[in-house]
Amino acid sequence: MNRTVLRRVAAPCIATLALGLAVSACGAGNEDTGSKTSNLSGTIKGAGSSAQEAAMKAWRAGFQTDNPKVTVNYDPSGSGAGVEQFNAGAIDFAASDAALDPTKGEVDAAKARCGGKNALEVPSYVSPIAVVYKLNGVDKLNLSAKTIADIFSGKVTKWNDAEIAADNSGVTLPSTAITTVHRGDESGTTKNFTDYLSKAGEGAWKYDPDKVWPLKSGEAATGTSGVIAAIKEGSIGYADESQAGDLSKANIKVGDAFTAPSAEGAAKALEVSPIDDTRTEGDLAIKVDRTTTEAGAYPLFLASYVIACPTYDAAKLDLVKGFLKYVVSTAGQQAAASNAGSAPLPASLQTKAAAIIDTIAAK
């Protein structure tokens, strides 16, 4: 697969010249929703990303409305659990906020689950990860990647530390102790967050990107909703921005400016992030550029995936294929943007993803 850079304009209307196409996500692109017929019937099961939960609700509702005899069940058990369930054959598709990791044996396990054929993996959901916090009297906070790394590694332990104060001139910071909150389950959001700290943290983060949080310090919580619920006065954590609710969200340093989390910012960061050309055919994993200085870009984001087998039995084939086609379609992406605040996939990437899903065949 050739190295390809995704080019897009801010959501919801996204124009792109990447991947050899020049079309707009607002009018052209993949219009096939995968649900042209109401003759489909049956049940399929998926599990994984809790970050995708709100988007999955929209996708399930849209697809089931068009196909009233179909039931799509989804368990937001976390990316790690979803991949494990998929590889064990317990579900029909998985959703993960991190691409299958060949160094962890996930690619080989998925291949074995799929009868010796490489699993298919396509982007389905793009969303900023917010650094969420709760600090009385501090509604706006600027943090560099290095400072975030120092906070979560335990080097910075007070809110009025000089390192935080340096980027927040004029803000009265309390001497309150900082409580960090992280995911206690295997999480693709954690892998994206630690990837950002590793690449943008100026050497302050000493750990490799991973779905498993590397430190014993701080408070552990299960799932995105668990992290949000655990943020109390003096706490700081990380979560999909769409589920941050009323919590305060830090601006992160990009170049010489500080940028708030937004779908538009994630879209701009996606512009400079290439497809990983080391992956197998049918795998559209993205190499996220965490160090971009593009104005308005927000490089702390997740590109989340749906994972499926290239073949299914007759009872599941059209259901899985139809649902996943809907997920990556213009209608599906707009539904997710409305319900979850995500950035719709560029039309060119929709087309690439749909073409891969189209290859799903009968066993």
What this model shows, in words?
Residues 37-329 form the PBP domain. With 363 residues, this protein is an alpha/beta fold. It has two domains: 24-127 and 276-286 and 303-362, D-Maltodextrin-Binding Protein, domain 2; 129-264, Periplasmic binding protein-like II (D-Maltodextrin-Binding Protein, domain 2, 3-Layer(aba) Sandwich). The protein has helices at residues 53-66, 79-87, 106-113, 145-152, 162-165, 188-200, 223-230, 263-271, 314-328, 330-340, 347-358; strands at residues 15-16, 23-24, 42-48, 70-75, 93-96, 120-133, 142-143, 179-183, 219-221, 235-240, 248-249, 251-254, 257-259, 301-308, 311-312, 361-362. The protein is elongated. Residues 1-35 have low confidence and may be disordered.
